[in-house]
């Protein structure tokens, strides 16, 4: 396993729509292991999308406190409910936070690391992380959302983001 370098703005891979993973083979499983290790190497981070490590594939990993790591391949949001405004940051936009509108709860479908169909209902921080990482797969950074531009602020090193 390896800790991979995080791509940051203005790297063009972050603006590309990621491609679907056609099959889960050894190289995909290695990428997932490396992404998990990379995510856990950054204290306080809860999610990572493959484009953030330079791989334009539809894979995300989420590591919630005191929960088992979540891996989703080819994830799609199939339902959003409610709306809330929250502070958000990103490994690929270091040093900044902004306020963004996110759903109160979402339903996501995709495949797990073994290729089995997965469907997940999430709320709170998990819903936020899923929306944030799926945005990455669509070539969208949180700073691309119109409401964030007005609230974007420089942060201190001890503050954390997604």
Overview of this protein structure:
The protein is an alpha+beta fold and 162 residues long. The chain has a single domain, classed as Alpha-Beta Complex (Peptide Deformylase). The longest helix is centred in the N-terminal third of the chain and has 16 residues. The chain starts with 25 loop residues before the first helix and ends in an 8-residue tail after the last strand. The chain is built from three helices and eight strands, in the order αβββββββααβ.
What's the structural blueprint in terms of helices and strands?
Layout: H1 26-41, E1 47-49, E2 59-62, E3 70-81, E4 84-90, E5 93-102, E6 105-111, E7 117-123, H2 124-137, H3 146-151, E8 153-154
Antiparallel strand pairs: 1-2, 2-3, 3-6, 4-5, 5-8, 6-7
Features:
Peptide Deformylase; five-stranded antiparallel beta sheet; 22% helix; globular
Quickly describe the structure:
The chain is an alpha+beta fold. Helices cover 22% and strands 32% of the residues.
Q: Which word captures the global form?
A: globular
CATH topology: Peptide Deformylase
The chain-level mean pLDDT equals 92
Level-2 CATH architecture: Alpha-Beta Complex
Number of domains: 1
Distance between the termini: 22 Å
Task: Report the total helices.
Answer: 3
Which structural category do the helix and sheet elements fall into?
A: alpha+beta
Largest sheet: 5 strands, antiparallel
- Tell me the CATH superfamily: Peptide deformylase
N-to-C series of helices and strands: HEEEEEEEHHE
Assign a percent range to the helix content. 10-25%
Q: Supply the CATH class.
A: Alpha Beta
Q: Calculate Rg over CA atoms.
A: 15 Å
How many distinct beta strands? 8
Low-confidence stretches: none
Strand order of the largest sheet: 1-2-3-6-7
What proportion strand?
25-35%
């Amino acid at each position: 396993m390896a800790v991979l370098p995080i791509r940051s703005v203005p790297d063009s891979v972050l603006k590309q729509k990621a491609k679907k993973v056609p099959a889960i083979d050894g190289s995909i499983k290695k990428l997932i292991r490396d992404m998990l290790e990379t995510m856990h190497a950054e204290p306080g981070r809860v999610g990572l999308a493959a484009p953030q490590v330079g791989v334009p594939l539809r894979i995300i990993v989420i590591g919630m406190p005191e929960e088992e790591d979540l891996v989703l391949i080819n994830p799609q949001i199939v339902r959003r409910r409610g709306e809330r405004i929250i502070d958000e940051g990103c490994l690929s936009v270091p040093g900044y936070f902004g306020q963004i509108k996110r759903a109160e709860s979402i339903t996501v479908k995709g495949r797990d690391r073994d290729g089995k169909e997965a469907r997940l209902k999430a709320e709170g921080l998990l819903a936020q992380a899923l929306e944030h990482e799926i945005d990455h797969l669509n070539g969208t950074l949180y700073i691309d959302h119109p409401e964030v531009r007005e609230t974007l602020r420089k942060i201190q090193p001890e503050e954390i983001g997604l």
